[in-house]
Amino acid sequence: MCLMEMIFQRASNDRNIRFSEIAETCRLPEDKVELLLMKAMSLELIEGKIGEVDKIVQVKWVTRKNFGYRSNRANERSTGSLGSKR
Q1: 44: which strand partners?
Q2: Which residues contact 75 (CB under 8 A, 6 or more apart)?
Q3: Alpha-helical regions (H) of the chain
Q4: How high is the pLDDT of residue 67?
Q5: What pLDDT shows up at residue 64?
Q6: Fewest 10 Å CB contacts: which of 14, 29, 40, 48?
Q7: 69's torsion region: left (phi>0), alpha (psi -120 to 50) or beta?
Q8: pLDDT tens track for 43-65
Q9: In a 3-state reduction of DSSP, which class is residue 61?
Q10: Gap between the Cα atoms of 11 and 31, Å rounded
Q11: Alpha-carbon distance 20 to 40, whole Å?
């Protein structure tokens, strides 16, 4: 979920993310980032390309799944929608 929120908070034209940024944000060792990305891709949560040599992931697509209120607020900020209160 940390990875998903991180991607949602970025602009759609700013989706080239260094492994070191992901490791810092998600609080895991940098050598585990590639595994995290592969799992997210296999679950079809994200789509993109992993650059092992440069240690950068280029995220092309992110699924919009409901991960709770906090994630919904992050989605609203990233898309610019105001949302409606019930």
Answers
A1: none
A2: 8, 64, 81
A3: 2-8, 19-26, 33-42, 69-79
A4: 55
A5: 74
A6: 29
A7: alpha
A8: 999 999 999 899 999 999 888 76
A9: strand
A10: 26
A11: 17
Q: Counting beta carbons within 10 angstroms of the beta carbon of residue 70, is it exposed (0 to 12), middle (13 to 18) or buried (19 or more)? A: exposed
Residues 76, 82: contact at Cβ < 8 Å?
yes
DSSP symbol at 55 = T
Q: Are 73 and 79 in contact (CB under 8 A)?
A: no
* Residue with token string 């390309």: 49
Q: Which residue has the tokens 């070191």?
A: 20
Q: Decide: pTM greater than 0.90.
A: no
Contact between 25 and 67 under an 8 Å Cβ cutoff? The reply is no
Judge whether residue 1 has pLDDT over 90.
no
